[in-house]
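Continuing from yesterday's entry. The apo prediction looked reasonable, so today I'm repeating it with S-adenosylmethionine included to see how the binding region is handled. Same sequence as before; SMILES copied from the compound registry.
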Amino acid sequence: MGGGRKRRRDGSEAPSIHPRNRYAAAAPDFAALAELYPSFRPFVSVSERGRASVDFTDFSATRELTRVLLLHDHGVNWWIPDGQLCPTVPNRSNYIHWIEDLLSSILIPPISSSSGRVRGFDIGTGANCIYPLLGASLLGWSFVGSDVTDVALEWAKKNAENNPHLTELIEIRNANAASLSSESEAIVREPIRENVLEPAEDVAMPKPPVLVGVLKESESFDFCMCNPPFFWLQLGLRREHGAFQVLKSTEAFFLASKLSCKIDTLSFSVDVTLSDEQTEAAILHGDDYGGSLKESSAKLQSVVKGVSFRITVFEQIPGTLLIKGSLLNKALSGTFSSLFSQLEDTLRMECPSKAR
Ligand SMILES: C[S@@+](CC[C@H](N)C(=O)[O-])C[C@H]1O[C@@H](n2cnc3c(N)ncnc32)[C@H](O)[C@@H]1O
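Holo prediction written out below.
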């Protein structure tokens, strides 16, 4: 029965799937989907007892699963390039329904819009554009989705445009463009510390544009949502590859890319810092921002020196590691995104996944 609570390993109760979630009554049927979609078939294995499963540590498998679920159950055409965050449809649908509950509760007064349509703002919509696509297809909501990397902006737009019935409902905005047009101020602030193990020293970085400058003066929204701006990579490893080895491979990867990095074996993190010349080259060659030379120089002036990005390795469950990439210098988002996807390829080669 959908909506039942699952027990975690520590005995506590895990949040249940929302009762209106399409997958609340029954989880996706991998075998049936494999029958219908030949491209999904190679990713489904069937055990001796006849149970069909998918390797959730294999990016290609989870991407294909997301693609067929969005197509089959939601009539949505969808794709993302390698290295981009792949969302799980049942999980992301929960958030849409939880927001729906909040909006219908007395906690949140309705914001009247002329169209009478619910309007949401999705900070960091990603290449996958998942929340706008689900909100629009499930409930007819309209969305503005923002992002800062070229690849996310390009694919979020493609994902909206490849669904003519939803295109009108989804607008994608470049938060970087907003920061350049609205005189971004450089500030020194604490790094985002969502893991207690992260070092506590302050990091100099430009203030990231999140809402200010991205929203228009006259606009109103019924809600705003955000899945934090980190990049995650999940690696299912063979027994002999531990977190320490992955950390060392990460360090070696950045050193081989001629970047300065500092490994911290206590917090299992690697801080990567680009030299002034590397930062300048990255920005002036416009790898992360397709703007004009004038915009590039404005961006260059807004850059504050310091740690550029941080990679942290976590052991999620024995044999499965999560590698989190945090962008600390927003001016380098494209460089970061591209390096993170190269790091992913390197780690997948050096620390192969568990055999299926
Ligand atoms: C963890 S991904 C989430 C993607 C998608 N919303 C999801 O839930 O699968 C976070 C996204 O936030 C973007 N991001 C980072 N800083 C941002 C900012 N200041 N404004 C908008 N997006 C940002 C990143 O480029 C990345 O695409």
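Comparison notes:
- Residues 333-350 form the longest helix (18 residues).
- The CA atoms of residues 190 and 201 lie 7 Å apart.
Will overlay with the apo model tomorrow.
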